[in-house]
Structure formats: structure tokens, C-alpha cells
Design brief:
alpha/beta; about 50% helix
Length: about 210
Amino acid sequence: MSILAPLSPRPVTVAGVSRYLALEGGDGSGKTTVADALAGRLRARGDEVVVVREPGGTALGEAVRELLLDSEILDDWAEAFLFAAQRAELARRVVAPALSEGKWVISDRTYYSSIAYQGRARGLGEEAVRQINEIGLGDVLPDQVFVLDVAPETAMPRQHRADRIGAEGIPFQEEVRKAYLALAAADEKVVVLDGSQRVEDLIERILEVAT
């Protein structure tokens, strides 16, 4: 018998519209800024929007966020499973209910981050990390994923405060970037955007693709 709470049913997708969008990219690439601005644009036209961040978004997620980002030392597999655990909780408690009510969900990171960071940059294996996340997520997966591509040497100084993972060096961030580009080449739902563009231009492109 499953110990997971049942998923809220996902709504019938409006023809040609993707309502669950995720922003991805390396540390300092501008995901949070774009996610917030995109939500503001959608709300201004009368849409209901829920913005979530990973890790976080639930009581469990916020507790795990502190462990993941502020611990001095953390085993790589422990890191991967903690990300997957908070993500499964967020999907069931926040994302699925919002989608079932016809709301947009804008996510600041999703499980593609784990594929890039833990799967490739940590060397745990991209397919292994994908599988442990998809088991927990079920069918609550982003409709579109937008990668803000910025060179690590440009992006890293933008961070307000580098956390444990964000403080990894440029070679680590380069592996993350390569992983995202490979994901985009293999997965049609992943769209790479030039993160050096103006926020307004990025939003226009995202809405063009999503709607």
C-alpha cells in the first residue's frame, strides 16, 4: 500500500497553454528575479499564480532548505535524496492542488536542477537522479522548463549570498551548465534562453512559448 498522499487531479490543460512553468539555471543566473516578474505579468492580466521555490515551499521544504544550503558538510547522496524528498512534498501539498484549481504555477527550480547538480556535477549519474525524483513526483511535472544560460564567471558574482552549493567553484558550475544544455538538446520541453537579456524580453519569450 502506498504511503504517499493521493495526488490532486491535474486539470485539463487549456489548449496550447502550459500552466506549470519552471525556471532553471546556474547560481546567479537570475531565476528568482524572472520568476517573480513573470508572476507579476500574469497577475496583471487577471490570472491566478502560485510561485514556489526549491528547496522550500512547505514546512518540510523550508527545514530541508536549511540543511541543504547551510550545512558545512553533507554527503552527496544525502543531498540528492533530501532534494527529492522536499520536492515530492511540494508537488503534493502545493503544486498539484494549485494546478487542479486552474492556477499557474511558476517554480524557481525543479528536478532538472538535481539532474544537473547532483547527477552530473556531483557525479551521481543523471539517469539515477532523474529516476529517484520522478518516482516521488508522479505526474506532477513541469509543462515547460526555461534555462537561463549565463556563463558561470558572470553569474556567480551576482549572488546576494553564496550558500554551500552556490559557493562551489567555476569548474563545478561549468558542469552544471553543460548538463542543462544537454538536457535541452534531448528534451523538447526544455528551452534555453540567453540570461543576459532584459527581464522584460525574457518574459515575452517565455509567454510566447507557453501560450
